[in-house]
Design brief:
Layout lengths: L10 H7 L3 H7 L4 E7 L2 E11 L3 E9 L8 H15 L4 E7 L3 H9 L3 E6 L11 E2 L2 E2 L3 E7 L3
Parallel strand pairs: 3-4
Antiparallel strand pairs: 1-2, 2-3, 4-8, 5-8, 6-7
Keywords: Acyltransferase, Transferase
InterPro entries: Acyl_CoA_acyltransferase, GNAT_dom, YpeA/RimI_acetyltransf
GO molecular function, one term: acyltransferase activity, transferring groups other than amino-acyl groups
Length: 148
Amino acid sequence: MVERGQRSLYLDYLFLADESEVAVNKYINDGEMFSIYYRNDIVGVVLYVFHAQEVVELKNIALTPEYQGSGIGSLVLTDAFERYKRNGMIKIIVGTANSSIGNLALYQKAGFRISEIKKDFFKEYPTPIYEYGIRALDMVMLEKELIE
């Protein structure tokens, strides 16, 4: 686990998944953060925050571009499901931009279901974000039950 005092060393990774420095600075010292390794090299980070009613939020997961699509993200999600279920969490939630087609596919393949749309969430970002030619405007919230 990455200690709070060391988290700023991982900003470049966090910015891969969230381009807003203001947003990242709001949550960087919350919850639990882990570095992701592959063959003894750091390839990304993941940060979880906790909410009431035993809900954990996947706040940021980022892999360097050469490891995106490699299956590592799916393994990190599977680990989170097992870890937080053992720790008594009943649900995991995640939010991603409407334009993040790859993320939406990853989360749904892992069993997440769309639960809410936060309209215009990204509209006020200082620099507009475009992915696949689509402007990121809305936050798509997804959730997965951890109990059967």
